[in-house]
Design goal:
Elements (H helix, E strand, L loop, with lengths): L3 E3 L16 E2 L6 E4 L10 E3 L6 E2 L4 E5 L6 E3 L4 E8 L5 E8 L13 H5 L3 H11 L6 E3 L3 E2 L9 E4 L10 H4 L4 H11 L7 E6 L6 H4 L5 E6 L7 H8 L8 E3 L2 H13 L5 E7 L7 E6 L5 H4 L8 E5 L6 E2 L12 E6 L53 H4 L7 H9 L3 H6 L11 H6 L6 H13 L2
Parallel strand pairs: 1-14, 2-17, 12-13, 12-15, 13-14, 16-20
Antiparallel strand pairs: 3-9, 4-6, 5-8, 6-7, 8-9, 10-11, 10-15, 16-17, 18-19, 18-20
Helix pairs in contact: 4-7
């Protein structure tokens, strides 16, 4: 039996452009990219392929010099056409020109009875070689999980509450068998429980509702209720010295397919969303897909920002960009590169704002879908302590004081204020409501890296 938890704080951003419940099998992109920048905590990513090499899906592309056994592999078969580097020869991405049909590298298959008897060491070896391991994220810090560590629990968030979030019932439809196998595998990697955290009032997919051998917890409330860090905080808070792993449902399913079918299956469904998309819908593709074919002739305007992920925490990638490793969503919003006279204080009925004085009347119609652009309506200014951060953070954490301790590089204070419990997505709403226009997520990442490397 799991727990039922109702969150009272938060703010749901209801935007226009949600994906229609239609999955399209469109022509696949020609190129796919894997980016080391998608993964926090990498020391020095080292490529093991060169331009011109032929790879299969599951073939090694690069590894981290600090954890050479954690291998990042190709999502598709094809030819390596670019190994892109930045300053000081930092590895930025590896681009693959994909074959028309995907050829998979074979790994060992196991029957259900064999899986029940597998040791943790054998399981880790298979997951590490296949390239599925980077799906496991370690808390604190939000980095790729350390294979040498045994976590006290593993948490899976079975829903998403971010703006324009895709429907998990569509993303993972028909994957019940592989999700169950993946869960059975994960249970052997932790000394505690595997938690599947669902939404209490929405329709729950049978993929999650019928899974056995886990703690199924139910949550209700506004965003960030779907963030796994918030869920962990209310189930079993992370203290100094604790290690917890998180993984997306897709990662669990990929583990299930790896052991049942002997392949690294990087196929996924991606939601194309946003007010500037003519036909928001779902597309079948693979990890690291180019977005060019999805948005071609499908935009209301050329002056847009294309984001891999959601509008709160996603990464701007441009019209020729690629979907991130952890993303199931591409968001397209109007670009906000214009100046609005005293826009930071001018009220209006059309504005979406947590502050009632600014988003005049918008709070009276919370279910209305709104069109917003990327304009911040102001520039960074002095840190104003208003108490608003605490109103959108459903955790026993003081975001304002935590951020100030990071700016002061006071590690003891950061630890006392709960930095081990949060990563960027947990405090992303603070950045949205911040009247001082600080880059809260960037500040938090700097603090996390400072504590991790201290």
């Amino acid at each position: 039996m799991g727990q039922f938890i109702r969150l009272k704080k938060g703010f749901t951003i209801n935007l226009q452009g949600k994906a229609a419940p239609k999955v399209v099998e469109a022509e696949q992109p020609e190129t796919f990219v894997i980016k080391p920048t998608d993964f926090h905590g990498l020391y020095i990513p080292k490529p093991v392929v060169n331009v011109g090499d032929t790879v299969k899906a599951g073939s090694p592309l690069f590894h981290d010099k600090r954890h050479e056994n954690v291998i990042h592999t190709s999502p598709v078969s094809g030819e390596v056409v670019e190994v892109k580097r930045g300053e000081k020869r930092k590895l930025l991405e590896i681009k693959i020109l994909a074959d028309k049909t995907v050829d998979h590298l074979s790994f060992k298959k196991y029957s259900v009875s064999e899986i029940a008897n597998l040791s943790a060491e054998v399981i880790k070896e298979q997951i590490l070689k296949s390239g599925v391991w980077p799906s496991l994220v370690q808390r604190p810090y939000g980095i790729v999980a350390d294979p040498a560590v045994t976590p006290k629990a593993i948490h899976i968030s079975a829903f998403d509450s971010h703006p324009l979030a895709p429907d998990y019932n569509i993303l993972f439809k028909g994957q019940d068998q592989f999700f169950q196998i993946g869960v059975d595998i994960l249970k052997k990697l932790t000394s505690g429980a595997v938690h599947v955290n669902t939404h209490a009032t929405s329709e729950i997919s049978t993929v999650f509702s019928q899974v056995k051998g886990v703690e199924v917890n139910k949550f209700t409330g506004q965003h960030p209720v779907g963030c796994v860090g918030v869920q962990i905080h209310h189930l079993d808070p992370i203290n100094k010295g604790d290690i917890v792993w998180t993984i997306s449902p897709l990662g669990v399913i990929q583990i299930g397919k790896l052991f049942a079918n002997g392949i690294y299956d990087a196929s996924r469904i991606v939601a194309l969303t946003g007010s500037e998309v003519k036909t928001p819908q779902y597309y079948k593709t693979y990890t690291g897909a180019s977005v060019k074919k999805f948005i071609e002739n499908n935009l209301n305007s050329d002056h847009v920002r294309v984001i891999s992920g959601n509008p709160l925490t996603g990464t701007a990638i441009g019209k020729d960009g690629y979907v991130g490793f952890f993303d199931h969503q591409v968001s397209v919003l109007p670009e906000g590169d214009y100046y609005e006279f005293i826009g930071w204080i001018t009220p209006g009925a059309r504005k979406l704002s947590f502050q009632r004085a600014l988003g005049l009347f918008s709070f009276l119609t919370p279910n209305k879908e709104r069109v917003v652009d990327t304009n911040t309506h102001g520039e960074p200014r002095a840190f104003v302590q208003t108490g608003i951060f605490e109103q959108v953070t459903p955790m026993d954490v003081l975001p304002t004081q935590l951020l100030k301790s990071i700016l002061a590089e006071d590690i003891d204070e950061m630890e006392a204020l709960g930095i081990y419990e949060v990563i960027e997505e947990d405090l992303a709403l603070c950045e949205f409501v911040d009247v001082s226009k600080h880059k809260v997520q960037e500040i938090l990442r700097e603090g996390l890296e400072l504590v991790r490397n201290s």
